[in-house]
Amino acid sequence: MLESMGPLTGSPWIYVAVAMSVLLDVFLPILPSGVLVITAATAAAGSATGAVPHAVPDMLVLTLCAATASVLGDLVAYRLAWRGGERLDRAIARSRRLTRAQERLGVALSRGGGVLVVIARFAPAGRSVVSLGAGAAHRKVREFLPWSVLAGLSWAGYSVALGYFGGQWLGATWLATGVSFAALLVAGAGAAYLMRRPVVEGTGTRA
Predict the structure, then answer these.
(1) Which of the pair, 203 or 118, is modelled with greater confidence?
(2) What is the reported pTM?
(3) Is the pLDDT of residue 84 over 50?
(4) End-to-end distance of the chain based on CA atoms, in angstroms?
(5) Which of 69, 35, 48, 75 shows the shortest CA–CA distance to 165?
(6) Taking Cα atoms as reference points, which of 82, 85, 112, 78 lies closest to residue 199?
(7) Closest Cα to residue 38, out of 168, 160, 185, 203?
(8) Is the distance from CB of 63 to CB of 157 less than 8 angstroms?
């Protein structure tokens, strides 16, 4: 059923589409970047089994493309928030969610607990909250960037693996894409739960 995506998945434009979707969803979390990555990986699994005859993306390139776009999007949001000025500060102050995330992120990064950045990458809109919070709090880029890179690689690798192995087990069908995306949503729900847990004082970990 993924044959209909042949013109896209069979050309280099799939990398452009993935990169732009992942890059921009830090500002527009409603963009289906995860679906696009999973669908491309599912098509690749179909090619490996002969179910999809057209050319498909290379898995390593797809993973690196999605991860790089994720990090670049994080840095753009981070820099915009850093330079946002009083208007952005007031907007964050009015948002309980952003204020709480900013406080927790500051504590976590200062104590070497930047794993929060990785967890947030999987949570719905968590990437946006953390990137903007880090910039608005003027956290040092050397504290934020390594965790953003790890987050991007983790999310991209997980998404590609879901699509590929889902396609291997269920075939290159929309069912495989749907099941894989459901698994991504479950991971997101778990990440959102972990983000809501309080930081244990003095450890930088969560209760």
Answers:
(1) 118
(2) 0.78
(3) yes
(4) 45
(5) 48
(6) 112
(7) 160
(8) yes
